[in-house]
Design goal:
alpha/beta, Rossmann fold, seven-stranded mixed sheet, 10 helices, globular, binds benzoic acid
């Protein structure tokens, strides 16, 4: 993961454990084989990396968050702090896997070029991240709360949420054959509510708030979101839309 967001492993585990829990379909799409060497790009605290390691020969995890990499290493994983835009690997992996991380990397062409370099001929690139329309209500509410204070939140959007056609074109331009690229709406229950989600992922917006107003921006956004994302029992559900894809290089 990257950007100006800070990643705290404990906060992430408390508010966002569901991210890895819901990632198994992507592991299934990758279908790791014994003996394969796999790179987990944006591995976070390594919850899914550990599952990959059980299935493949060797797995390396990389993430821009130091605290996340420390947590991944505590699991005994081979994990390294690395910016996803500047991957340093050369023709050494059978597959690159990524779950819920690529939307934080705002220069997707640089990321895809690094993935291509990292793969052996015939290598696969399989992943899932936020697609077009992902967390749209949350983005609008945060932007509205900032705009009331004269701040343009749109300029500060920290995420890349492309359509399948946009992402397919980028993969093909880099030499990949795209097998699948689909948008999957996935309303996602939030175990610690919208407040936990905003505290974990909304930092870029709050940092843009005028001095001393970050907390009120959050509270205003929550009240804007309540009618559409909170049910009568007080349960919050985020409007996630995933882009799940599978691509491969020529052998
Ligand atoms: C996502 O997994 O789609 C996501 C997570 C945090 C912020 C934005 C999107």
């Amino acid at each position: 993961m990257s950007g100006t967001q800070t990643w705290e492993a404990d906060r992430y585990a408390k508010n966002a454990r569901f991210v890895a829990d819901l990632g198994m379909p992507v592991v299934d799409l990758l279908a790791p084989r014994p003996g394969e060497r796999i790179l987990d790009l944006g591995c976070g605290d390594g919850a899914l990396t550990a599952k990959l390691a059980d299935m493949a020969g060797a797995v390396v995890g990389v993430d821009a968050g130091e605290d996340m990499i420390a947590a991944a290493r505590k699991r005994g994983l081979d994990a390294h702090v690395m910016n996803g835009h500047e991957l340093t690997f050369d023709a050494e992996f059978d597959a690159v896997f990524s779950n819920a991380a690529l939307h934080w990397m705002l220069d997707p062409d640089a990321v895809i070029a690094g993935v291509r370099r990292a793969l052996k001929p015939g290598g696969r690139f399989v992943g899932e991240f936020g697609g077009h329309g992902n967390v749209a209500a949350i983005c609008v509410a945060l932007n509205a709360a900032l705009r009331q204070r004269g701040v343009d939140g749109v300029e500060r959007l920290p995420w890349f949420f492309p359509t399948p056609d946009e992402y397919r074109a980028k993969l093909e331009a880099a030499g990949f054959t795209v097998r699948t690229a689909d948008l999957i709406p996935r309303p996602t229950p939030l175990p610690t509510g919208i407040s936990g989600w905003l505290e974990t992922f909304g930092e870029n917006f709050f940092r843009a708030a005028p001095e001393g107003e970050a907390e009120q921006v959050k509270l205003d956004a929550i009240e804007l979101l309540r009618p559409c994302l909170c049910d009568q029992a007080g349960n919050w559900t985020a409007d996630y839309v995933r882009l799940r894809f599978s691509a491969a290089l020529e052998t």
